[in-house]
Amino acid sequence: MRLYIIILVSLLPLLIEFFLIPPKIIYASEIIQGQKHFFNGDYRKAIESFKKAIENKPNKPMAHFFLGQAYFQAKDFKKAKESFLKTLDLKPDYDNARLNLARCCYELREFQCAYEHFQYIKKNKPEELESSDIVMMDELDNLAVETSGGTDLAVATTSRTDTAAPKIIITSPLLTRGIYVTKKEKTAQIRGVVVDESAVEWVKVNGIGVPFDDEGLFSFKVTLQRGDNRITVEALDEFSNQAKLLFVLRRDGEQLGSNTAGKHEQQTGIIPSQEFNRYAVIIGISKYKDRRIPPLQFAAADAQGVYSTLIDPNYGRFKKKNVKLLVDNEATTVSIKKAIGTWLKRKAKKNDSVIIYFAGHGAPEYDKTYWVTHNADITDLYSTSLSNLEISDMLNRVKAKSVVSFLDSCYSAATVNRGWNVRDILVKDPFQEFKGKGRVTITSSDGKEQSLELTQFSHGVFTYYLINAMRGKADQNIDGYVLLDEIWDYVKDKVTNTALEYGISQTPMIDGKFSSGIFMSFNPSKTSKN
């Protein structure tokens, strides 16, 4: 009997783990550990962790994808290929796995396999291709041309004849920089044409298919609500090339000649004129005076990147004197109050526009949430840091017509126990104190998620895509002007998809009415300096 008791006691930890700890908890723990090892360059330990995760959840494509990444970095291309194939077996539309599979095939000199998968990515996700991928694809193309006798590669090279997206042209109503004004009408007739060298498969307006003739002409009536009505026109050709055009129809709006960009009420979308100014306060805190607050990798770099983009003559074109940059030990409670509550209050006039950017830790204390400033005491945020309510009060002192806030931060009761590469967990509505007339706030995640930092980006994921958006990537209608709603569409999709690739759920949030038409920056490839 005593022997049985000894055996039972020795097996007790395993029995507890098996019966009491759900496999999904073990899976998540091993995924996080594997990512830590991966980004620390310890690929052997990363492989071990990802294998354990797969043992607990064998049908999770994400775990197989991570395992493939670790094998690839360890130069075991054969096993990496097997992992990416398993990922695609579980999730055929996992484009990142397909791209990595193409790279594995290339390293294994399996050129036909590499060519086919690279071509798939080129067709469906060309923005995911890196410069090294382009080099490999060029080599594969050259190999196909040089190979005699009509090989598979040679056939594949000539099989596709159209890689260009259709061109959508709106002929009525007349659009002015993406905006059309109507005073009384409750409906609008949209007419246009889709131009493409191949056959057009479908045309959609706001997600609804509309009829079109052999020449690509289409017509569709929409009902207009008061204010701005966002219209999206999409088209697809027979080779699956897709185009998308976004514009706004406004009912009961002001005339476009008012030169009042960045206004939430009128949504003109006009570029800034000399009749008003734009101001910004940019804050990034990676290092904290209180050593109990763990440092962040890239918050300071995030702020610097946003600042550089705003003052760049190609992108933001802000006057340098109109932008305050506070990084690390400069970002104290007092200095932030002076920048937002005093400097902005004095400078920004009625028709001006303002951008607020904050990257750093956030944390709750009792019933309030706080920006954790450089000199904050983590045990006494009330008297040493800035609550959202204080920040809202400061913003209310600013007379600017529009204030757009970007917050790459979230809030956690356990800030000091922060995960290795996230900016904590939000426990309260980040918009609660930021709501109001002429105010739009975009945060890096929703109320129960994390904000991811990635070494390969040298930025937080949210800010990395925000900077890219402001530098022209978000210019959906290719008119040379990047509007806030275009930034929102671009950042939301990019952040969500990238975070999922690393096993984290992160969904940016937006709050504030009339975000459409607010001018933010220039796309230099489509505009000249003016």
Rg calc = 26 Å
Q: Which assembly state applies to the chains in this document? A: single chain
Helix proportion range: 25-40%
The coarse silhouette is flat
Largest sheet: 6 strands, mixed
Number of helices: 15
Question: Would you kindly provide a written description of the structure presented here, covering whatever features stand out?
Answer:
The structure is a single chain. This protein has 530 residues and is α/β, with parallel strands linked by helices. The chain is built from 15 helices and 21 strands. The strands form six sheets. Strands 10-9-11-15-16-20 form a six-stranded mixed beta sheet, with helices on both faces. The protein has a five-stranded mixed beta sheet with strand order 2-8-7-4-5, with no helix packed on it. A three-stranded antiparallel beta sheet has the order 1-3-6, with no helix packed on it. A hairpin with a 2-residue loop joins strand 4 and strand 5 (208-209). The chain is flat. The termini are far apart.
How do you describe this structure in short?
This protein is an alpha/beta fold.
What is the secondary structure topology, with strand pairs?
Elements: H1 2-20, H2 23-39, H3 43-56, H4 61-73, H5 77-90, H6 95-107, H7 111-124, H8 131-146, H9 152-158, E1 167-172, E2 179-182, E3 187-195, E4 200-205, E5 208-209, E6 217-223, E7 227-237, E8 242-251, E9 278-284, H10 299-311, E10 323-327, H11 333-347, E11 353-359, E12 362-365, E13 368-371, H12 381-384, E14 386-387, H13 388-396, E15 402-408, E16 439-443, E17 453-454, E18 459-460, H14 461-473, E19 481-483, H15 484-501, E20 509-511, E21 519-522
Parallel strand pairs: 2-8, 9-10, 9-11, 11-15, 15-16
Antiparallel strand pairs: 1-3, 3-6, 4-5, 4-7, 7-8, 12-13, 13-14, 16-20, 17-18, 19-21
Helix pairs in contact: 2-3, 3-4, 4-5, 5-6, 6-7, 7-8, 8-9, 10-14, 11-13, 14-15
